[in-house]
Every structure is written in structure tokens, then in C-alpha cells.
Specification:
alpha+beta, single chain, Beta-Lactamase, 5-stranded mixed beta sheet, 5-stranded antiparallel beta sheet, Heat Shock Protein 90, about 450 residues, binds adenosine-5'-diphosphate, 3 domains
Length: about 450
């Protein structure tokens, strides 16, 4: 579900990026069109002015052929001389008469009278303006010669180089601000959101709502979200504590009556045995079995409450895991009626933990292996150390677990449908997992229906 959602930050950054990109493209297009129009106007005024100036500097030789006086090209005349504009004279049929052309070519242009036109000359685009030339006596004659001025398109555009540079600079600055905005957004929203999310996830996984969330940023909405979560945390924590207290109290209160019932069972059994009352013995046995079940449940609940309760400290010692496994296997083999064989493969494994708790884990896993195994099968028990962890591995050839139920078996009171008739309350694995987590470890399961299961308990080495 989450995979289909887009991050709010990415969405904002993409939308802002698109808006800025569209704005930039529009501005550049507008600027290009404006410059295109402006270039024509600039070329026209520049060329017209040069032609006008040239016309004032035309002389005639003894054959009355026109030429441009050398004063016209005086580079000292900075105010008037423009080296980018080529001015020359050509006859009406396009042959060059006098003046300056790009690359000093003296070819002339095949054009007539033009107020402004564009030509390609030696592979480059030029603006050209031509005007009628005057005769010596001051008359203008269409058939005589033309005064031409040409200027490369590139030279005209040079005038806009500064403007283009400014535009690119503005785009660069806007781009830099945009990147800064994206980073700021990430830092101010994405990072605290991720931290909040991780801390909520962690609290949910550990069912620990004692630490309240903290938001130091400047956004009202995130502060509201944090406050609402903290309020929820408080309520959930109160409920959890109430529930823990209730479990502890109920379990505690049930202990005495169960102990009394247990003792009474023994007395009644002795009396019945004396009287050789078979019926009474049978019903006392049932009563005794159920009392034992109740005692086990209450003991398990009390142990779990103790593990759950914050601040409970358990004494720690170095434990040789092989000894604990062997003694648990002996205890189980003593009451086993299924002719199960245990096979061991032990490496020296020492862990630092509470002996009782480790015994509970091993006992729960082993008794499950026996409980859910068929008669005459084997159980393989191994222990060792790998990748900085100590592990205990219990493999059975029993009924296995349905794939979709594997994630549920560590929940309190969960039992697979088919196992409802077997002894137990669905607390053993949940208790074992709590103990593993208490030491920073865990339990993982591999199981195949009707083939068997492997439970691996691991805790990090100290
Ligand atoms: P229970 O008291 O029911 O054994 P657990 O918490 O120990 O409670 O186990 C929960 C459920 O997990 C069991 O009811 C059973 O369905 C399944 N289970 C546990 N261990 C095994 C195993 N070795 N083989 C098959 N199923 C198992």
C-alpha cells in the first residue's frame, strides 16, 4: 500500500521544479522573440546610419567612378567608426566598386535596392541595407550605383550577450535557491517525520510507550501530530500498566486457592485410596490434573508479568548451555510417552543470563517439539556460537506449522486450530520470545507442514 504513495516532499519538489522549469522556458522564449525583433531594429538603425555617413564621404575619380574617401575608415574616429559594419559600393548589376567587405573579398552582392535584408555570405548570415548612390552633381540615379552596408547577425547579437548572461545567471540563482529549498524541506519535514515514524514503529514493536516523542522543529502541524501521538502513548501505556497490574493481581490472588486445592487433592486422594474408592480416585485425578494446569498457567502469567515489568532485575550468571539442555531433555524424557529419541550436536556455548529464564526457554521449545511430534520420531538439539551470537537449535519431525500461521505463534494465547486439544495455553512461545528479547535476541522459525519445524533461539554474545 505504502509503495503506491508518493512522498509529500518529493511531490512538492517535483511540482515546484515543474513550475520553475515552465516559467523559465516561457521567459527564455519571450526573451528570444523580443531579441529577434530588437535585433532587426538595431541592425536597421546601425546600417542606415552607416550608409548615411558613407554617402557623405563619397568621392569621384577622373572617370567619374565613385569611391569611399579614406577618412571614412579612420579608426581614430571612435564615435563614428564601427568595425563590424562593412560599407562598400557596388554597381546595379552587383559588381563591386569600392569599400570594405568581410574577408576583404571584393565580390559584391547579388541584391538590388533593399531597406534591410538578410543574406548568406561565405557561410555566415548578414544583415544588408542598400541605398541609391548620388552622382557627382548630386542627383540620384537608379541605374548608377548602390551604397551598401552589411553587418553579421552574430555581431548584432553580441549586443545581447550581456542580457543572455544575466538570464543564465538568474536561472542559476533560481536553480540554486530551488535546490536549497528542496534540501531545507527535506531537513525540516522529511527528517523529523522519519524520526517520528521510526520511533512510533519501535514503540509499537516493543509495546513500550514510556518514552514520549519529541519534535524540535518549527512546524505547527508536526508539533500537533507529535502531541497527539504523545497523548495516545500516555493512554496506551496507562492501559498496558493497568492490564499488567490486573494480570499480576489475578495471578497472585489465584496462587493461594490453587495451592489449597492442590493440597486438598492430595488429602482426598489418600482418603480415597484408603477406602479403595476407585470412582473417587478417578475423579480426584481429573481434579488434580486440572489444578496442575491452572497452577502452570498462573505461574507462566506471573513470570511473564515479571519480565514485562520495567525495573525487574534478574540475577545473571555464566551458563553452560549444554548442561541446561541436557537437564531439560532428561526432565522431558522422564515424562515422555512417545518414545522420542534426542540427538545432540553441541559446541561449547557459554551465555551470560538468568538461569531460570534460560531454562524456561529451552523447556518451552523442547516440550513443544515433543508435544507436536509423532511417536518414535527424533528431535535434533544443537547449540553453538556464530556471527557474534549464541544459539540453541531444536529440530523436530512433527506436524509442522501452516505457513500463514508462523507469524502468529508468538502471540499470547495463540494456538493453531488443530492443536486446541493438546495440552497448553498458547503462552510458551510468547514467553520464550519475551525472554529472548530481554537479552537483545530473538527466535526464528522454519517449518514445513507435516514435515517438522526448526526453532532457533539466539542471543548476542556479551
Ligand atoms: P502451546 O502451549 O499451545 O504449545 P506455544 O506458545 O508454545 O503454546 O505455541 C503456540 C502454537 O505454536 C502451538 O499451539 C502450536 O500450534 C504451534 N507450535 C509451537 N511449537 C511447535 C512445533 N514444534 N511444531 C508444530 N507446531 C508448533
Amino acid at each position: 500500500m505504502l509503495k503506491r504513495k508518493i512522498s509529500f516532499i518529493n511531490f512538492t519538489v517535483i511540482v515546484c521544479g515543474l513550475i520553475i522549469a515552465a516559467g523559465t522556458i516561457c521567459l527564455l522564449l519571450m526573451q528570444k522573440n523580443l531579441i529577434k525583433e530588437d535585433t532587426k531594429y538595431l541592425a536597421y538603425t546601425e546600417l542606415a546610419q552607416e550608409v548615411k555617413r558613407a554617402k557623405k564621404n563619397i568621392g569621384f575619380d577622373e572617370n567619374e567612378n565613385p569611391y569611399i574617401k579614406s577618412d571614412f575608415y579612420d579608426p581614430e574616429e571612435k564615435d563614428t567608426y564601427n568595425e563590424n559594419v562593412y560599407v562598400f559600393l557596388q554597381s546595379r548589376d552587383g559588381s563591386f566598386l569600392d569599400g570594405r567587405m568581410p574577408d576583404d573579398s571584393r565580390t559584391g552582392l547579388d541584391i538590388g535596392l533593399q531597406s534591410l535584408t538578410k543574406v548568406t555570405f561565405q557561410g555566415e548570415r548578414y544583415y544588408v541595407a542598400t541605398r541609391r548612390g548620388k552622382r557627382k552633381n548630386g542627383t540620384e540615379d537608379d541605374s548608377f550605383y548602390l551604397v551598401c552596408a552589411m553587418m553579421s547577425e552574430q555581431a548584432v547579437k553580441e549586443n545581447y550577450r550581456g542580457l543572455w548572461h544575466q538570464s543564465y545567471l538568474v536561472i542559476g540563482v533560481v536553480g540554486a535557491f530551488f535546490i536549497l529549498f528542496a534540501l531545507l524541506l527535506r531537513y525540516l519535514i522529511a527528517v523529523p517525520m522519519r524520526q517520528l515514524n521510526e520511533s512510533i514503529k519501535k514503540s509499537g514493536e516493543n509495546l513500550d510507550f514510556t518514552d514520549s516523542l519529541e519534535y524540535k522543529g518549527c512546524f505547527k502541524e508536526l508539533q500537533m501530530l507529535t502531541d497527539a501521538n504523545n497523548h495516545l502513548y500516555q493512554r496506551v501505556q496507562q492501559e498496558l500498566e493497568r492490564q499488567e497490574e490486573f494480570n499480576a493481581n489475578v495471578s497472585h490472588e489465584l496462587r493461594t486457592p490453587i495451592a489449597v486445592m492442590h493440597a486438598q487433592c492430595q488429602v482426598s486422594r489418600e482418603v480415597a485410596e484408603k477406602k479403595q474408592d476407585k470412582e473417587a480416585i478417578k475423579s480426584i485425578e481429573v481434579f488434580e490434573r486440572q489444578t496442575n494446569r491452572m497452577k502452570n498457567l498462573v505461574d507462566q502469567l506471573l513470570q511473564m508479568t515479571a519480565i514485562d515489568r520495567k525495573g525487574t532485575t534478574f540475577s545473571m550468571e555464566d551458563i553452560d548451555v549444554r548442561d541446561v539442555i541436557e537437564s531439560a531433555c532428561d526432565d522431558i524424557a522422564y515424562i515422555d510417552t512417545k518414545q522420542i529419541t534426542f540427538e545432540y550436536s553441541f559446541q561449547p556455548t557459554i551465555i551470560h543470563a538468568n538461569m531460570n529464564l534460560i531454562y524456561i526457554v529451552i523447556n518451552n521449545l523442547l516440550s513443544n517439539a515433543v508435544k507436536y511430534s509423532n511417536e518414535g520420531t527424533k528431535i535434533y538439539v544443537s547449540c553453538g556460537e556464530k556471527d557474534g551470537k549464541s544459539y540453541i537449535r531444536i529440530q523436530d519431525e512433527g506436524c509442522g506449522i501452516e505457513k500463514e500461521n508462523i507469524s502468529k505463534i508468538f502471540e499470547s494465547f495463540y494456538r493453531e486450530e488443530k492443536d486446541r486439544n493438546a495440552e497448553g495455553f498458547g503462552l510458551g512461545l510468547s514467553q520464550a520470545m519475551k525472554i529472548a528479547e530481554l537479552y537483545g535476541g530473538g527466535i526464528y522459525v522454519e517449518s514445513t507442514k507435516n514435515k517438522g519445524s526448526i526453532f532457533t533461539f539466539f542471543i548476542p554474545k556479551p
